[in-house]
Amino acid sequence: MNRIDVHHHLFPPAFVANLVDNGHYLAKGIAARWTPEVSLADMDAGGVAKAYTSITAPGFALVQDDSLFKIIRECNEYGARMIGKRFGFFASLPLPDVDASLKEIAYALDVLKADGIGLLTSYRNKWLGDFGPVFDELNRRKAVVYVHPTAPDCCRNLLDGVADWVVEFPADTARTLASLIFSGTIARCPDIRFIFAHVGGVVPLIATHFERVREGATKTLQGLHYDTALRAHEVGLHSAVKTIGVSQLLFGTDAPLRESRAQVEGLAAYPFTDAERRQIDYENAKRLFTRRS
Fold first, then answer.
1. Diameter of the chain by CA atoms?
2. For residue 285, what pLDDT is reported?
3. Is 77 within a domain?
4. For 224, phi and psi rounded to 5 degrees?
5. Angle 34-13-137 (CA atoms, 0-180°, nearest 5)?
6. Which residues is 8 bridged to in the sheet?
7. Is the pLDDT reported for residue 156 higher than 60?
8. Is 80 exceeded by the pLDDT of residue 216?
9. What is the residue-wise DSSP string for 140-156?
10. What is the structure's pLDDT at 167?
11. Domain containing 282 — which CATH number?
12. Residue 293 falls within a domain, yes or no?
């Protein structure tokens, strides 16, 4: 019971209601029956001491009216009520509205005492490098920023019968990393502690492409953090270790959409040393989260 999970989702009532209203497939699955107790049971089965929760895709992209800010505030307050020994919390922002997002950063970090900010890779057809003032403020606060993939408006439902998460999620992580690096955002904001889901999507496989566009891009990628959710297999872990390095990998599960113990079993099958396994399971996370661990 020492693992720290940085990729663990919560389903507050306001979020679930929006999924139901829009007929999203998540509303018929785990979202309909999730409670904090469901997460705790999964964590116990996987030896997880603490999980940092965040809203999963599609986030609040389905909110079509001026209730966006209200729904996000309700979800953030729900997540904050879970903060304790077993749970941490990444607050959501009402992007692409920059002014409202700056307001929510202050409330989430100063009032709710969130452990960081949870973002999606894109909002409508804008990627994270497009939101300079938001990242300037997060840099000033030396915040942890957790980034989860989604599909941008341009690229939803491109292939009949193929869900967006199959191809677009890992591709959009690469897009937003390119946006952050090539816009100069990461260089300008060195005090943000970034975490990218799923070992950066396809980025370990195309890091040399980044390097061709900008010398030093690989070193920049190696300074960020990545969780291991959905990559706990030989190909995913090998590419991550070779491109990123063990010191930047964090244990992540995608629970309750996936079982934590399946992630544990996948990591156990890879030939890590005991010291490397401890780094991924909890030591890297403890170093990253200076406020709580």
1. 51
2. 97
3. yes
4. -95, 175
5. 105
6. 53, 255
7. yes
8. yes
9. HTT-EEEEE----GGGT
10. 87
11. 3.20.20.140
12. no
3-state secondary structure of 43: helix
Chain-wide mean pLDDT for the chain? 94
Task: Look up residue 110 and give its amino acid.
Answer: D
Distance, CA of 32 to CA of 17 (rounded, Å): 9
Our CA angle for 63, 68, 72, nearest 5°, is: 110
**How many CB atoms lie under 10 A from the CB of residue 37?**
8
Q: Is 193 contained in some domain?
A: yes
Number of structural domains (the chain) is 1
DSSP 270: S
Nearest to 199 by CA among 164, 152, 247, 248: 248
Q: How far apart are CA 249 and CA 203, in angstroms?
A: 14
| 149-to-55, 58, 176, 248, 293 alpha-carbon distances in Å | 11, 9, 9, 19, 24
For residue 50, give its domain range: 3-288
Q: Cα(176)–Cα(186) distance, rounded to whole angstroms? A: 11
Distance of alpha carbon 255 from alpha carbon 99, whole angstroms: 32
